[in-house]
Amino acid sequence: MSRPSLNSVAVLGGGGAGWMTACALARVLPGDGTLRLVETAASAPRGALSTLPALRTFHGLLGLDEAALMRSARGTFKLGARYSGWTDPGHDHVEGFSDAGAGFDGVAFHHHWLRARERGDAGRYEDYSLAAVAGRLGRFAPPSEDPRSVLSTLSYGLHLDAAAYVAALRATAGRVEARAGEIADVVLAEDGRIAAVVLADGERIVADLFIDATPDGRLIGATQDAGWVDEPALPCDRLALREVTPRAAPPPLSEFEAIAEGWLRRVPLRGGDAVALAYAGGLTSDDEARDILGGEATIVPLRNGRRRQVWSGNCVAVGPAASQLEPLNGDDAQAIQSGVGRLIALLPAADGSPLAAMEYNRLMAEEQDRARDLAVFRYAAATRTDPPWIQARRAAPSPALAYKQAQFESRGRVVLYDEETFVEGAWVGAFLGHGITPRRHDRLADRIPPAQADAALARLRGMIRQAAQAMPPHADALKDRA
């Protein structure tokens, strides 16, 4: 027997989470179905986005022209992220969007680098990543489609003004019926599903499926079994946002600087850097945070953790309603994009699908936990002795993270679980960059004579540097998108 099709969807909230969801659903729902979005004041976008390369694929599915998007959203290119002040004073490292080195004799490159490092100066690990080297030099070129070119190893994300990004999504939303409004009440049916959402002006919204894109999870929080799981190993529960004077030559990198109060993120945009300060409200006041940023700043509360269930009954939470993490991994919008893609793959009928909801909840919980592990690792590996850093290290890492780090410390092996956002190369770059060095390398790397291996590494390092230096300055590359 056929099941009734999904004919009406209501998105409550707005912002990046709401509009990304609405734009994607507009392309898959039946043509005679209704798709409504209510923008609440609290969901208004603020600050900037620092994205992974995968978001560009999502834009392709939506039909967003990248050049036009970058012009309207003051966009710049992103080749990775630079972390400074996390370990030894003066130490920094870049985690780039390209694989480091090349596999020799079927052995992962970092084992060859570790072996060479034991003998002498093999350079920094990041010296073998074209994205990292180009990022440090302030250079950018698009990836090459020629697999013989070193430029084919590149990938890139984007830096975008959040409000302008939402405006671009709104402009391409097509059939989405949008209005502003505030939620007055969430009415539940006897079975625990949402019967209606009542707005402050009295309008009653009824739908087959409700998408909760509110910052506080107003809808999903009213349903059963969707409680919040806090993450105690991430200490910062406040963000202060401000835009500062532009730099003459902004790098194609997000920058994360550890400081006594927490950490600063700088996202270069055309016309100014979007700066965010992450701090613990119990240790640093909002006024002190504003002083650190040198003036007025917007304060945004943050609750690290996730919902036990992000799909409950006929309600699916996306964005901050589903999960929140300190934006420390440079993966803004990734959880939204992933959640939207999985929702489309599991899209229910009008009467719901418990099995689809179970699978969705499993996948999203595992993905969020793995992304959390990388953020927690950065705190665990830090050597700072300021109060928030000590507080973070008091919390035990998850068993999955503890095992992953122990395996790498022992023999350089990266354990990857299901639903990882970050691939093996990203974890290697983070481990080595934050000072975690394996006690031994893979002995299969010893099959290459030392002199031959050293010569190969030197050639590779030189080729990557030469290729990066041949790229145009980042500012010049942006002129093509002007």
Write up what this structure looks like.
With 482 residues, the protein is of the alpha+beta class. It has 14 helices and 22 strands. It has helices at residues 15-25, 54-62, 66-72, 109-119, 130-137, 162-171, 286-293, 334-345, 354-381, 387-394, 399-411, 424-433, 450-470, 474-479, and strands at residues 8-13, 34-39, 48-50, 76-78, 80-84, 92-96, 157-161, 177-180, 183-188, 194-199, 204-205, 209-212, 228-230, 238-244, 254-259, 262-269, 272-279, 298-301, 305-307, 311-312, 315-317, 323-324. The longest helix has 28 residues, at 354-381. The N and C termini lie far apart (55 Å). The model has no long low-confidence stretch (mean pLDDT 93).
Radius of gyration: 23 Å
CATH class of the largest domain: Alpha Beta
What is the strand arrangement across the widest sheet?
6-5-15-16-17-14-18
Helical content stands at 25-40%
What is the CATH-assigned architecture of the largest domain?
3-Layer(bba) Sandwich
How many domains would you count in the coordinates?
Answer: 2
Number of strands: 22
What would you call the shape?
A: globular
- The mean pLDDT is 93
- What percent of residues are in strands? 15-25%
What are the segments in which pLDDT stays under 50 over at least 5 consecutive residues? none
Write the CATH homologous superfamily of the largest domain. Answer: FAD/NAD(P)-binding domain
Helix/strand/pairing category:
alpha+beta
In whole angstroms, how far apart are the ends? 55 Å
Largest sheet geometry = 7 strands, mixed
**CATH topology (fold) name of the largest domain:** FAD/NAD(P)-binding domain
